[in-house]
Amino acid sequence: MLLDFSSFNWSSVAQSVLNGLAFSIMLTVAATAGGVVLGIFLALARLSGIRVLKVPATAYVNTMRSIPLVMVILWFFLLVPAGLYEAIAGEFGRNHRSEISAILTFVAFEAAYFCEIVRAGILSIPRGQSSAAHAIGMSYAQNLRFIVLPQALRNMSVVLSNDQTIG
Description:
Layout: H1 10-47, H2 51-66, H3 69-79, H4 82-95, H5 97-123, H6 127-135, H7 140-162
């Protein structure tokens, strides 16, 4: 018989599928968490009036959003030196280069998209909210932390949960 799979070890296939599923879930969680954190910092840099912060953040976001994910994966896997992974994670980095490369790739890629979502969320807050915070003596950092970001995160929570490159 040409296609006889009766002697094939199906248990090893099932284990590989489960390992792949576990890694995909871990990668999704890590990329989302890291992407949101880095995206918030990028959005604040893009909204900043400081040119030294604004220009590189804008260049990074525009570059990452304009190239395909496959290209970014290849860049991080082939062009980032193997020694960097070892420096980041020690012995684990040497043995798990592809996993660390995948996590860094997706965090870097997701951060560019989350940056635009966060920036739009911050810009959606009426200017009067910031003016009121300034009027009662809040600093810029306090204004962002207590007034703007909580409202902006609530406004963009649906988009943040919906915009997943991996899932």
